[in-house]
Specification:
There is one protein chain. It contains five helices and no strands. Helix 2 (14-21) packs across helix 3. The chain has 68 residues and is mostly helical. The longest helix is centred in the middle third of the chain and has 11 residues, at 40-50. Helices cover 57% and strands 0% of the residues.
């Protein structure tokens, strides 16, 4: 998942992201290291937060734009 890349590009700490998304900081860390996979609701929260598509977040495409 591109979570770490997106977070670092915007200079956001894991703690701030976890607070903004109302998630546990350990969960953010585990998503970034691949030790845990986000559920659908969490993927939507993260994609909306960074304004990218879920496919981009999951590295299925290199295009971050959302197709609606």
């Amino acid at each position: 998942m591109r979570l770490r890349e997106l977070r670092r590009a915007r200079n956001i700490s894991q703690l701030k992201l976890s607070m903004d998304l109302q998630l546990n900081q350990n969960a953010i860390s585990r998503y970034e290291t691949g030790l845990r996979e986000a559920d659908y609701a969490t993927l939507i929260k993260i994609a909306d937060y960074f304004n990218v598509s879920i496919d981009y977040l999951l590295e299925r495409t290199d295009n971050p734009e959302i197709n609606r």
